[in-house]
Every structure is written in structure tokens, then in C-alpha cells.
Amino acid sequence: MKPVLTRSLRSLQHNILAGIITIGPLAITYFIFNFLLDQLAKAGMPVILLLTTIFPENWLRHPLIQSLLAVVLTLVMLYVVGRVTSLVIGRQAFDLFEAVLERLPFVAKIYTSVRQLLDSMMAKKESGQRVVLVDFPIAGQKSIGFLTRTMTDETTGELLAAVLLPNAINPTSAFLQILPVSRVTDTSLTMEQAMSMIMTGGAVGPESIRFTQPELAAGKDTKPPAFSA
Description:
With 229 residues, the protein is α+β, with helices and mostly antiparallel strands. It is built from six helices and five strands, in the order H-H-H-H-E-E-E-E-E-H-H.
């Protein structure tokens, strides 16, 4: 009786785990998507409520229609803001706005840090900002990082790299390492591939990755080691 019960419990645990693995990504995607829609709706809702007072049609007072119109309105406003700032006059006005923000002590630090992080994440590969591997937390164990910039050691003149190491599953927290460029391993990963690996704990990623420095691999002895009898 006990072996049958044990097998039943194992089968139950296996099926529950399989269900979690299947539903988990869908649930996380739903929660993130729902959160974004909720924030977009909240941003545009004041304007929609103002319109309901001007145009007292019954269909405009339906909550679902109000939320949908609020989301659309917010997306249109984001598009307009992005379009205007891409123009010369809009770019100058936005630079002036940023200059005003930089004069606010507490706001300036937060805004500048977030802006630089977003610019680094959105930067193209040819800009020098790319996905790399570094030895962390110990030598021989590599972590995915984003090389954000390079600098020079004032003492030795050696080229250094600033590498941001986001934590797996929760990339909102990260480590910042400054280390010699020679200790950084370049990869062919895109930003999207790297973020997918980080968000999924490595479950989603390419079939192969450059783990070893090419010059180190070329220097290794390719002959098989000799074993004594």
C-alpha cells in the first residue's frame, strides 16, 4: 500500500511542478502586461474623465471603453513626445528641460542615473557598449555583464572597463565592476538575448556562447595529456 501511495505522491508532485513550469511564464507575462496597461490607463484617465463631462454620451462612460481610450491616448502622447524630441527644436527644448532637472539636487541624481542606464541598455553594439562575460563571483565562474564604457588607469595607463552585472531573475539590482579590459570576454550576444537569459535564469538562451578568451584558447596545448600507468 505504501509503495502505491509513494508513487501517487511523486506523480502528483511531478504534475504540479510541470503545471508550474507551463503556467509560470504565462502568468509572469500576464502580470507584467497587465501592470503596463494599468499604468498607461492611469496616465490618460484624467483626460478621458474630462471628456466625459464635455461629451455626456452613455458609451463614453463605460469603464472598459474609458480604460481603452486612456491607454490609446497615453500611447499617442508618448509617440508625439518622442517625435517632437527627435526634431531640432524639440531636442533643444528637451536639453533645456534636462538642464533644469540637473539643478535639482535629489532629482538630478536619480534622473541622470536612470537615463544613463536606459541609454546603455538601448545602445547599439557598434557604440562600444556590449554584452560581455567577467569572472564573478570567483575566477572560473563567469557572469553576464553589460560593458557600459571604458576608461584609463591614472597610475598605469591601462585600459579599464566599467561592467554592469545585473542579478538573475531580478535585474533591477546589480553590481558595478571596474576591471582591466583584458579580463573581459566579448560575446556575440545581443541585449535581448542577454536579458532573456537573465530573466529566465539561463533557461532561455543560445545553444553556444564564447566562454573562453580566443587568445587563451589558442595558447592551450591541444595534445592529449599523458597518463602514467
